[in-house]
Amino acid sequence: MQRLILHIGTHKTGTTFIQRFLASVQEQLLSEGILYPTAGRPKATGTHQYGHHLLGWSATKMKSFGFVKRKQDWLDVLEEIHTVKAKTTVISSEAFGSCSQEQIIQLREYFADFDVKVIIYLRNQFDFMISWYKECVKSTMYKGSFQQFITENIYFCDYDSLLTKWIDVFGRDRVEIKLYDKLKRNPGLEIDLLNTLKLDPEKFKQYLFDSQRENVSPSDTKIALIKLLNLLEDKLGSRGSLRKTLRGIIPDIIKQNPVVNKFTVIEKKFFSKAIYTEDELVLIRNLTKEWKTNFLEKYVSSEDRIYFNF
């Protein structure tokens, strides 16, 4: 039976970085008997090209980026798997992390002919909420305060319920939990994944990326400025040309090099506060307390619980 590794995220745990790495060593992996399918990945120029998001969006019935549920995407991936006949196939999309239990059961049916191992990376809940908020402001024009975002999205931090859904369907022995905060520095996400695939990292040494990551969260001041532009864009209504101009400004703001970022002076002068308050930190701590306790007691060793302190 062919082995299938299903990497389901979660969001903001280096998923784009992992997907970019896998795509960049696609040929080398295949020489080791591991397939990272081309099918199921959007034909795009941005970061979405690296992951199997057509499958993730389809599984969760999301209409992201104009895509709707399409059976053909699954057929294309299965055809590639059966044609190549690799020992192991890796499928990766953080969108899978949003599946309901019913949708997870459907996934199991799609992969009924495979020996499936589910891999999930989990992050300190407070850091996750900060990073996820920044992503939504940057990419989805979110305009609300961080406190509003917390109340709307805190359920993402219920790791116990998330894991229970997958374990109930695939079994505890087929769900591997990885601690993002522990692994991102040592040994590094790409090396950890190579270890999971039972590959020698030395063989891939020349392909390992430097310290720069994909889809890195912008600074607090940049996010404050982007959120202001989101609000202005919303107020413009149907005035399309002005809205397009504002959209075009945002990539300049996200640039990390202050020499080329003409908005650096504006940021420093008007947006110097941290993105969160102490009250909001306490709010997250209180809202996640029971979830966190259940998760840590079930799945995290006592020495590793430090990674979830905040």
> So what's the overall shape?
globular
Helix content: 40-55%
This entry's quaternary arrangement is single chain
Unreliable stretches (pLDDT < 50, length at least 5) are none
Q: Element order, helices and strands?
A: EHHEHHEHEHHHEHHHHHH
Number of strands: 5
Main sheet, how many strands, which sense, barrel? 5 strands, parallel
Number of structural units classed as domains: 2
Distance from first to last alpha carbon:
43 Å
What number is the mean pLDDT? 87
| Global Rg | 20 Å
* Category from helices, strands and their pairing: alpha/beta
Biggest β-sheet: strands ordered side by side in the sheet:
2-3-1-4-5
Helix run count: 14
Assess the beta-strand content as a share of residues: 5-15%
Word description of this protein:
This protein is an alpha/beta fold. It has two domains: 143 residues; 125 residues, no CATH class. It has 14 helices and five strands. Strands 2-3-1-4-5 form a five-stranded parallel β-sheet. Helix 11 runs antiparallel to helix 12. The protein is globular. The N and C termini lie far apart (43 Å). The model has no long low-confidence stretch (mean pLDDT 87).
List keywords for this structure.
alpha/beta, 8% strand, 310 residues, 5-stranded parallel beta sheet, 50% helix
Would you summarize the structure shown here?
The chain is an alpha/beta fold and 310 residues long.
Layout: helices, strands, pairs:
Layout (H helix, E strand, L loop, with lengths): L2 E5 L7 H10 L1 H6 L2 E2 L17 H7 L11 H14 L3 E5 L8 H10 L4 E8 L2 H16 L5 H8 L5 H12 L4 E5 H4 L5 H8 L23 H17 L3 H15 L9 H7 L7 H22 L11
Parallel strand pairs: 1-3, 1-4, 2-3, 4-5
Helix pairs in contact: 5-8, 11-12
